Amino acid sequence: MTTNNEYDDLEEIELSESDKPSFENNSNNEENQTGNSILREFLSYMKIIVIAISIAFICNQFIIVNAKVPTGSMKDTIMEGNRLIGFRLSYLFSDPKRLDVVIFKFPDNESENYVKRIIGLPGDNVVIKEGHVYVNDVLLDEPYIKEPMSVSSQVLNYAVPAGCYFMMGDNRNNSADSRFWVNTYVAKDKILAKAIFKYYDSHIVFELIK
Fold first, then answer.
1. Which of 62, 82, 112, 126 could form a disulfide with 120 if both were Cys (CB 3.0 to 4.6 A apart)?
2. What are the catalytic residues (predicted)?
3. What's the longest Cα–Cα distance across the chain?
């Protein structure tokens, strides 16, 4: 019996193993691609983290000081609990100025950092008498003082050495400063930064320090 089926004349073709579709290989390729994609994404995040940490380290070591003030020795300019942003490069090309608020290494214990106001410059003669401060025989104008300094019968006289600074806190009656330290003066190279901004941990509102 003959048929007219168009498929009768087709030859049977055997496929070799290499020609057969491999679903297992496709699955492995997809898994490899997914794994590579995850690895690339992970490495990308790690790169961002490393760059961010490096920038933060460089800024903290060479550009800014971020410090918390634990006491009220600078009231009302800086309140207890305020945080400060200090600029390390302020005195790279100029000298500290009188009345600047600065962050520096405490001369009696350099592992601690203090914040005070510069009162006496190198070569100045600072005299404290009758609750007032005189620099080179001129009464110092101090609008930042909110509470008068306690009057004492004692007259304190300080001759500021070359390359050094005389520091006082704005809260004169509750400030451990150059008047009381064993090492009275702060050398210029121990001044870390000029305090620029203050803010609270609870709300990041920056205020200029004057």
1. 126
2. 73, 116
3. 139
Q: Which of 75, 116, 194, 198 is catalytic?
A: 116
> From the candidates 16, 20, 44, 73, which is the catalytic residue?
73
Active-site residue flag, 47? no
CA–CA separation, 122 and 136 (whole Å): 12
Q: Do 82 and 133 belong together in one domain?
A: yes
User: pLDDT 10s digit of each residue in the chain, 210 long?
Assistant: 444 554 444 445 454 555 555 555 555 666 667 767 888 888 888 888 888 787 777 777 778 999 899 999 999 999 999 999 999 999 999 999 999 999 999 999 999 999 999 999 999 999 999 999 999 999 999 999 988 899 888 999 999 999 999 999 999 999 999 999 999 999 999 999 999 999 886 666 778 888
Structural domain including 42 reads 24-61
188 labelled catalytic: no
In a domain, 12, yes or no: no
